[in-house]
Amino acid sequence: MIKPLDLTIAVLYVIGIVTVGLWSGIRHRRKHASGNAAGEYFLAGKTLKWPMIGLALFATNISCVHLVSLAQSGFDTGLLNGNFEWMAAFALILLALFFAPFYIRSGVATLPDFLEKRYDRASRDWLAIVSVISAIIIHIAFSLLAGGIVLHTLFGVDMYTSVIVISLLTAVYTIVGGLTAVVVTESVQTIVLLIGAIIISIAAWHKMGGWQPMVHILQNDGALNKLSMLRPHGDSSGMPWYAVFLGYPVLGIWYWCADQTIVQRVLGAKDEDHARVGSLFCGFIKILPVFIFVLPGLFAYTLSKAGLLDISALKDAQGVVNSKGIYTVMITQLLPSGLIGIVAAALLSGLMSQISGALNAIATLCSYDIYKRYYPEVSDQKLVKAGKIAAGLALVFSLALMPLLNSYESIFNGLNDVIAHIAPPITCVFLLGIFWSKASAVSAKLTLWIGSAMGAIVFAVNKLFPDTVIGHIPFMMMAFYLFCICVLLQVVFTFVFPAPQPAVGAKVLYWRSPGEPLQSPGWKGIGNYKTLAVVLLVVMVVLFWMFR
């Protein structure tokens, strides 16, 4: 239980964020009042600049799941799951160089909208449904679960009561203010979240006495491999280095380049350069989570071995440690009153930003890709109202899913396990659609249907019959295998059902060559997207080499 001062700080923060969200959203819509009310609500009137895009991308990605589960993974397996953070930088480079300019030039409001223009209506419908379902499960329900665990431990409030209150408050400014409210609050929340994470990292570092004492304890405990991010074949984690480099791109391209919840911030960019630089800015920020989210968990492991952190409360009757609560233990034992309130506010930031981003994406998808299909002449006001209702219903479904998702031993692994079975067909049709001119509409539709069915079947087999051959395949490699099958399916179906030749002068929705999107000169100086992409690429290669 935290003290009244810390509780006051956390409550004032929540009130402040709700106020800022409502004020910014309503103010923006009044200031930019026009005939395009839907565009202002869902895409912020396409006025977003690169700093806000980068911070919002990061905030939508980072949630309580990351703060709680990355610390848990640091405690259990060391820096290994930091791969999900650093590999994201490569996906964001792809987003900046190839996907973002494509989306901006095509003028789409949603990613299912792009699939219809590139392929057909059936592909759009399927992606819209899958995107809404994935946003409910991945972006909201898992975040609510992680947030509920922490809030229950810190405040002593029932897990479901606390997340219902927080999610309803977040829904208020998200549903009322639209994307502008989401992006403005996310920018504030990112800063608060980073400050909170840095505070707990410094506290753990100070308590441990620095890097070398930690390394010494790991050596004595025979756990020095916890410092390695690239593990050898046969590693007990089930995630050797080749699984990272083969499997993550399948997950990452879908998550960062083809998921409405994430890409919506890019679709609201002022222009192509802001979209590109904002994506790369997020890539640089993604370097931090390994040091401020994962490393504190590893410090907690060594602190507990040194007797400097009491984790007895996490042990069951058999003495087995349930590491889900390790972040809360660190907060309460390593920080003084006052700082605990700030870190609690940071946890609330992660929870609220994730919920707000996902709700806005769901509202956009349901309005543009579902409601407007059946009522094409609908007014902007009714379109916005339909989106608000959809967001409210999505929140209710997410809350209902929490008990089911709580069965995962690791929330972070559970999250990525779900993504690994959703992503392969979507990643396939987007990649081939953008880079292969011959990819046909029928091939995309069949690949999405068959690929999604395969993913669902494999997921069910893994859960119902874990001792089968399929059940022993790590989820990262399973994602890669499913992706390869989807690529094969789409290529074969394209030759069986070829696409008609585009009319002369028709607008084509694919890059004629990989170099075409790089012909744009971009801004001059250090802000040039090509320069930033090269710098980010070099930095990531060096970091992986250092922690290999």
Automatic annotation (TrEMBL):
InterPro entries given in the database record: Na/Glc_symporter_sf, Na/solute_symporter
Transmembrane helix in keyword set: yes
GO molecular function, one term: D-glucose:sodium symporter activity
Keywords: Membrane, Transmembrane, Transmembrane helix
GO terms for cellular component: plasma membrane
Protein location: Membrane
Transmembrane helix listed as a keyword: yes
Signal sequence, start to end: none
Broad class of the protein's primary localization: membrane
Origin: domain of life: Bacteria
Topology in the lipid bilayer: Multi-pass membrane protein
Gene3D superfamilies: Sodium/glucose cotransporter (1.20.1730.10)
Transmembrane segments: 6-26, 52-72, 84-104, 125-151, 163-184, 191-208, 239-257, 277-301, 339-368, 389-406, 418-436, 448-465, 477-497, 529-547
UniProt record similarity statement: Belongs to the sodium:solute symporter (SSF) (TC 2.A.21) family.
Protein name: Solute:Na+ symporter, SSS family
Organism for this UniProt entry: Chitinophaga rupis
